[in-house]
Write a structure and sequence with these properties.
two-stranded antiparallel ribbon, 62% helix, 12% strand
Length: 338
């Protein structure tokens, strides 16, 4: 809250409120000059008592969790001294200054004095505790934010080597099979690397750039398949100004390419994007070797596991991430807001 940034102003406003609260109700009975002057005499005593409590007792015996009993005892002592000094001023100083005093039974006098002290010191203590609690929550939120950013950075760094490892393997195989394809693969890889170096370090990137990066990867992946129709890509909707976390979808697509059964009929891999102004969906499906029940990347801790970790860090529960597997097919569905 911005109000907590102006500490001195907050304190001034608090004492103006206290002075007004004890002055205005008595204007018709005693007059402003009389009541204002009397309250000016007592305000310094209240100020001393309040700041001993909130600046000394609270930080040392409550915030540091040392001894709450000492805080209660110290506060009670401050209130007792405050009442004693106030009674001395009322019975001795006020008459000397020419102000008459209204005498009341001692029980009524003590009750009024206790009520006033509890109200003033209690209000100041409550504000101090609230401000302390707010600062703790602010600090914890900042630490959580930095932790999330750190974890996301680690997860992104795990995606990049995994991706490069697979691409370089493909290029290595193409060098001996088809030099022209290998050259085209190197060109596509240079575009992908440029994107990874320039864009992937940002928290968010434009969706059209991310889609272009994915399409470059798919073109590179197609070079390793004999049938160009083995990998089918479809997109419904066009990206506009939407933004998404970088490299969020590529591990899912990469897993579909890496773990597909190349002996299956075309299309062996299907990649479908659905883009709207509010969300983006990705569906992937690929044939796998029958009875191969090992989850892709279950042993490495990367790929799909990284995607799920990132989704939890970025969107909490506001996302969809489903994995379905049968005897010879593996499907992934992801839906995130944009």
């Amino acid at each position: 809250m911005k109000i907590f940034k102006y500490r001195i102003l907050n304190h001034i406003l608090f004492w103006i409120f206290i002075f007004t609260f004890y002055t205005v109700p008595y204007l018709l009975s005693y007059g402003f000059v009389f009541e204002a002057f009397i309250n000016i005499i007592y305000i310094p005593i209240d100020i001393i008592g309040v700041y001993i409590v909130i600046e000394y007792l609270l930080p040392r015996f409550v915030f540091k969790k040392r001894n709450f009993g000492i805080f209660i005892l110290g506060t009670a002592l401050i209130i007792a001294l405050n009442i004693a000094v106030s009674q001395f001023i009322k019975l001795n100083i006020q008459p000397m200054l020419g102000f008459w005093i209204a005498r009341r039974p001692i029980s009524a006098e003590m009750f009024s004095a206790l009520l006033n002290n509890f109200m003033i010191i209690g209000s100041a203590t409550a504000f101090k505790l609230f401000r302390y609690s707010y600062n703790i929550q602010l600090t914890q939120s900042e630490l959580e934010r930095k932790t999330v950013q750190s974890e996301l950075g680690i997860l992104r760094s795990q995606v990049n080597p995994h991706f490069l490892f697979n691409v370089l393997n493909n290029i290595d195989a193409l060098i001996f099979e088809d030099k022209e394809k290998a050259s085209n693969a190197i060109f596509l890889l240079s575009k992908i690397m440029r994107y990874m170096l320039q864009e992937s370090t940002h928290e968010k990137v434009k969706l059209d750039k991310e889609i272009s990066y994915i399409q470059d990867y798919l073109e590179l992946a197609k070079l390793s398949f004999a049938d160009p129709d083995f990998l089918h890509y479809e997109q419904d909707g066009m990206p506009n100004s939407q933004q998404v976390p970088p490299l969020l979808f590529i591990p899912i697509i990469e897993n579909a390419v890496k773990h597909c059964n190349k002996q299956s009929q075309s299309p062996g891999i299907k990649i479908n994007f659905f883009i709207s102004k509010d969300f983006i969906e990705l569906h992937t499906s690929n044939f796998i070797k029958r009875n191969d029940f090992k989850l892709p990347d279950s042993g490495t801790g990367t790929g799909l596991k990284n995607v799920e970790k990132r989704l939890k860090l970025l969107y909490t529960d506001n996302y969809t991430f489903d994995i379905n597997k049968d005897i010879d097919k593996f499907e992934v569905h992801i839906k995130v807001p944009v």
